[in-house]
Amino acid sequence: MARLLTHNTPAGVASAAADAIVRAVNRHKGHRFNLALSGGSTPPLIFRRLRRLAGRGFAPERLRLFWIDERCVPISHPDSNAGSARKHLGHVWNAADVRAMSGELAPAVAAQAYARRLQYFGGAHAFDMALVGLGPDGHVASLFPGTDALEARDTVTVGEAPSGDFRISVTMPVLRSARSLLVVACGESKAWAVREALSGRPVSPFARACSGRPRVEIHADAACSRAL
């Protein structure tokens, strides 16, 4: 069953999510903590708080960073999820073991390359924690409702957004195999999918990722939580 925590603002969501990451890193018994990151508007706020906490709250060199999805652009492009993380994490990026997707490659080639990378770290079970958001349509990572990517059974696939652009994405089995999901949900438009996940009715991609999982923590802002 997913656990819901509410906060007044997106900044409050980001602060709490960053603190949850720090606690998980500090509890982790292994040398590296495998953290999968996502794009969106809230993660940069999380990354900036992690940057402030690094060296005081946790050791950033213990992080191994992965991504749950990426646009098919080079890291220098403003739409790159990894590029955004590099910008906002600062010295945390430099200290961590970074395993970004190769958005500059052809989508299928990039997906195959990342699948090989994940295989080295445990395949579908590579992630200690996945930081995920969700779209107003209930999509998670780049697994959109009604698309072939949503039903893919390997570890990495090519997803197609409603806009028609292709993206590299981990698959549902990878999200469901992560040891924990840390969810950020900001805005009223996300409430229906959060409500669905909390009720245990796995219809949307987001609810399917959460379904039956013992360790799902959803951080929602006031706009989202008021509409639940």
What do these coordinates show?
- This protein has 9 helices and 10 strands.
- The chain has 228 residues and is α/β, with parallel strands linked by helices.
- The protein has one domain: Rossmann fold.
- The longest helix is centred in the first third of the chain and has 18 residues.
- GO terms for molecular function: 6-phosphogluconolactonase activity.
- Belongs to the glucosamine/galactosamine-6-phosphate isomerase family. 6-phosphogluconolactonase subfamily.
- This is 6-phosphogluconolactonase.
How does the SSE layout of this entry go?
Blueprint: E1 3-6, H1 10-27, E2 33-37, H2 43-53, E3 63-67, E4 69-71, H3 81-89, H4 91-95, E5 97-98, H5 107-120, E6 129-132, E7 156-160, E8 166-170, H6 172-177, E9 181-185, H7 191-199, H8 205-210, E10 216-220, H9 222-226
Parallel strand pairs: 1-10, 2-3, 2-6, 3-5, 6-9, 9-10
Antiparallel strand pairs: 4-8, 7-8
GO biological process, one term: carbohydrate metabolic process
Catalytic activity: 6-phospho-D-glucono-1,5-lactone + H2O = 6-phospho-D-gluconate + H(+)
Family: Belongs to the glucosamine/galactosamine-6-phosphate isomerase family. 6-phosphogluconolactonase subfamily.
In a nutshell, what does this entry contain?
The protein has 228 residues and is of the alpha/beta class.
Strand order of the largest sheet: 1-10-9-6-2-3-5
**Total number of beta strands:** 10
State Rg: 16 Å
Task: Please indicate the count of domains.
Answer: 1
Distance between the termini: 16 Å
- Give the mean pLDDT: 96
What structural category arises from helix and sheet content?
alpha/beta
N-to-C SSE string, H for helix and E for strand: EHEHEEHHEHEEEHEHHEH
Largest sheet composition = 7 strands, parallel
Shape: globular
Enzyme class: hydrolase
GO biological process, one term: pentose-phosphate shunt
Function: Hydrolysis of 6-phosphogluconolactone to 6-phosphogluconate.
Pathway: Carbohydrate degradation; pentose phosphate pathway; D-ribulose 5-phosphate from D-glucose 6-phosphate (oxidative stage): step 2/3
